[in-house]
Each structure stands twice: as C-alpha cells, then as structure tokens.
Amino acid sequence: MLLQKLSQALDVLKPLRDDGRISGFALIGGLAVSAWSQPRATMDVDLLVLVDSSNLNHLVEALCDAGINAELRRGGIDDPVPYLIRADLLDIIVATKKYEAEAIEQSITVNIAGTDIPVASPEYLIILKLKAGGPRDLLDVQELLASGLVDRALLAELATRYRVELGQD
Asked: Could you give the CA distance from residue 123 to residue 108 in angstroms, rounded to a whole number?
C-alpha cells in the first residue's frame, strides 16, 4: 500500500519537476531510512519537496487530479513545518530551510521496488532527523550510523554548518 502511494506521488512529482513547477523532491522518513539500513515499519511516506510558494496550490491540485486526497496545511508562526501537504498516506513537507533544499539537491537515486527514486543521503537524512528530534527520529539516526554508509567527515561538516549536536556515537 505504501509503495503504491509512493508510486502515485512520483507519477505527479516527476512531471512537475520536468516542467519546472517544482525544483525537486526526495524521499525522507522511514522508507528513506530503510533504503540505507535495515527495513523498518512505517505508517506513511514522507517526501521533501522544493517548490516555490506560488506553485503550492498547483501541486495540491495535481495530486488531487491524480486521485490523491491532498490538503495544504499551513503551520503557525513557531511551527517547524510551515507548509505540509497531507495526502492519504503521504506527508509532503515543503522545503523552506537551506539544509532541506540541500538534502533534495544532494539526494541519491535509489531503486526501490523497481522504481528509481531520489532519496536523501544518509548524512542529510541524519541532519533532518536530528532537527526533527523525536524519539523515532533519534532511533533512526542510530540505525543510520550503524549502517556503515555514513560519510562521517561530511556529517561532521553538515552538523557544524547547521548547528546540530551529534552527541555520542
């Protein structure tokens, strides 16, 4: 079911990217962690999208036209996620911070269930998870660090640049 929703979302996002309506996107969240480490259960598909605010409504409409029940939610002044598109089993987070945009720009194409998907690199995924800071996020960071795929020098540089505490490994 999740892979089907991901496929539906990709059918919308790829043409929008090719048409210049969005600048890019990357898989984040539990499925992205599973791309780099041991698979884990997740209840939704999390995507990070780089889109100009003037194209947000077009993105929501395109999702709805594809049969995905999508709704744009705007966060409050202190909300860490200013724009979120909730769509069935999809959470599409609109990138508004430099590290989020870089995570998309530096994403790595991974073949998941026969489909090439841009996935946030392990290093950027760790930064995203540490910025989110929830209990599941911190467990994901441990799993990613244990995978042996993390470029520790790059991670240290990103942590310094984006003021993230890595703590003990």
From this structure: 11
Q: Record the pTM.
A: 0.94
Q: What is the mean pLDDT of residues 70-96?
A: 90
Q: Quick one: DSSP state of residue 37?
A: S
**Residue 139, by phi and psi: left (phi above 0), alpha (psi -120 to 50) or beta?**
alpha
**Which token pair is 19?**
């048409």
Q: What pLDDT was estimated at residue 168?
A: 57
Q: Are 28 and 103 spatial neighbours (Cβ–Cβ below 8 Å)?
A: yes
Domains plus CATH for the chain? 2-120 (3.30.460.40)
Cα separation, 14 vs 20, in Å, equals 10
Residues 90-119 have a mean pLDDT of: 96
Read off the pLDDT of residues 106-128 as tens digits, 9 standing for 90 and up. Answer: 999 999 889 999 999 999 999 99
Q: Which residues contact 99 (CB under 8 A, 6 or more apart)?
A: 124, 127, 128, 131, 158, 161, 162
- Strand-pairing partners, residue 50, are 24
